[in-house]
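If it is no trouble, can you show me the amino acids of a protein and the tokens describing how it folds?
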Amino acid sequence: MAMVLAALPQGAARPVSEATIDRVSELDGIYLFDVRKYPTAVQEQLVAIEAENGICRGHSGDDPTTIAACDRRDAMIAEVNKKGWCWGPDEAIEADRHWMRAGTACHI
């Protein structure tokens, strides 16, 4: 898993490459949405959040590796929230939620 995260694009906002999308989407237990429909300013963070979430939710809750992945995921979510994006709509069940602009349907 760490190799995949290290391979994610770093630096200035730019579209996430097809190779990165394919590499992350092939990991067991990770559902990768179509990140290309989101602005480049948040694309690489959303891919990284998804990868960390796969570790966080797919492993033992008392394993230090799992705890660290959850902490990294939560920190990245806070950064995406600061950019005006949230996981919603608030009233939707988890399976129907997606990343969206914060507003009346989704609150940070």
Remarks:
- The beta strands are 85-88, 98-101.
- The two ends are 29 Å apart (CA to CA).
- Residues 60 and 66 are 7 Å apart (CA to CA).
- The longest strand covers residues 85-88.
